[in-house]
Amino acid sequence: MKALQPGAWLRHSRSLSISLTILLLLGSLGVLLALQISHPAYAAGNLQINAGGGAAAPFIADTDFSGGRAGSGTTKAIDTSKVTNPAPQAVYQTDRVGNFTYTIPNLTAGASYTVRLHFAEIYWTAAGKRAFNVSINGSQVLSNFDIFATAGGADIAVVQQFSATASTTGTITIQFTTVKDNAQVNGIEVLGGSLPTPTPTSPPTPTPTPTSGPPNFGPNVYVFDPSMSSSSIQSTLDSIYNQQQTNQFGTNRYAVLFKPGTYNVGINVGFYEQVLGLGLLPDDVVINGYVNVNAGWNNGNATQNFWRGAENMKVIETSGSAQWAVAQAGPFRRMDVQGNLNLWDGGYSSGGFIADTNISGTVTSGSEQQWLSRDSQYGHWSGGVWNMVFVGVNGAPPQSFPNPPETVVNQAPVVREKPFLYIDSSGSYKVFVPALRTNSQGTSWAGGSAAGTSLPISQFYIAKPSDTAATINNALAQGLNLLFTPGVYQLNGTLQVTHPNTVVLGLGLATLTAQNGVIPMTVADVDGVSIAGLLFDAGPVNSPILLQVGPTGSSLDHSANPTLLSDVFFRIGGAGAAQATQTLVVNSNNVLLDDLWLWRADHGTGVGWTVNPATNGLIVNGSNVTAYGLFVEHYQQYQVTAYRHRDALYSPTAEHEPGGLDEWEQRWMGGVQGWSVSHQPSGLGSGQLLLLQR
Fold first, then answer.
1. Is the pLDDT of residue 582 over 50?
2. pTM for this entry
3. Which of 188, 360, 429, 587 is such that its CA lies 20 to 30 A from the CA of 459?
């Protein structure tokens, strides 16, 4: 986020759309209910879709898609002589083009289906003009597919046939990704639906982490214990920081772990560096010194201090005041600071997020433009520029928005803290998964150990950057949790989280990068999944979505055990050419979003209105979705769309890209679009135009 003067966005934010009346809310719900009621109930093995067109019996009108657009079509006759059991002429005369996904619902989970994809090149008159990839359930089945070349000419029908198994939620996902011009399909058939004949086999043997000896977290995880000399630890810390201080778009990732004990060191935290205490309680690891983020590398301007974090330690401040001068994606969690904390470094600053933290002294926000504090304890708070939000914070200032700009919500209605790695009294590594809390206020650990569940590290697959998507999916299919070690993972397939209560935990800002336009991760409509500590990076080929929680049409009630996304960040551009249509799509109900940054890059490499295109940030189709600290920036249409009942947003901020406004207004009437929601957020900011709706 760039530093701007107050009101700089005012003239461009006229189209901020928030439904404030019960009439509009009921109207939105009515539309959704009507859509649900009229959705076709498919007979097993008898689904035929006319892509981009209307009904042409037995093919039904286009449905179950996201992304893309209906093509211009043709009235020319199509040669179907090369196809066995061709579709009607009308199917080949219409098409869906672009980057898009069909998610076929209401199938029999685990059943085998035949997928027939119908094509005819009705636009180009030569080979090499159109090429695209097709994936089914995350596995690529067509690569650089050229309809003209395959069919042998224009206006000639061709069919590609595959086998696919319906997921545990009864869906098959078919993804079309452009390589050249536009991906295209004319018709889709999903036929069959037979369950495999069971044969007596032994269940697959999981490949968990060995239970004896320390886990192998890879070369970029440093584990310190109190027996090591302070000078040796300090030297390592300084070496990492010197490398990462200015490495904003580099590929190195580091996690620095401290075993329980006391350390006399000072820790400066750089880009892609996570500093963690390994105690069950924050006070199990004591730092006599400091844990700081400064902006010296940028002359005191902290607006680009992204992608780093500190968790689960007690800091006895020896330098006067601790400093955490960060922007987005710089969480400060489960910390116990004995002293003061400054959130700036003398220049502009733009952030940030504190949760489950005690700060005995004064928190000074300085130039911070916006900040979300949740379930914490402060001695005192000082300052506020545009948008300071406090949810469940003891010691928060009084409600006073807009002058000073402080919004106070006394309790967090429903929350689950981020899972964390720790070492128990026997020296064994475990992951603690905190329990759900309702109407919470103050830290989860104020009275001692918080409620929750400890999982042994043997129940985790420890992923390395060299792992393929197939390897990681094999671990997920065996019911293992995932721990991503620091690094950049080039994913050539979709990671499919299908088991309830799965924990997916990243160390050191582990980064999942989409290759060939894949969706990096999908989550089934199941209870209690936790995804935390990850950066999702778009690739040069457009991905329709970077993370999807629940398939289209998800409807289950997860209120007793919600899915959690915590410290999950998304990036389109900046580190290189990248594009994605939508960033995060939440279809499941009762999802918790806790510190998310969705960023279409406005600086770095591969940046420009047509260079890193991205349509929307967050799309919420589920009900009762709660977000704390939601930062969404620079998307080319709505930053956030949330239409369902009783969704709640706390301290969301949307910023728009100044360089693209002229083209924006030419392409999309009405100017910049911020939020399209059917509820009332608390502490809402759009760019630097801040609104409070209560």
1. yes
2. 0.71
3. 587
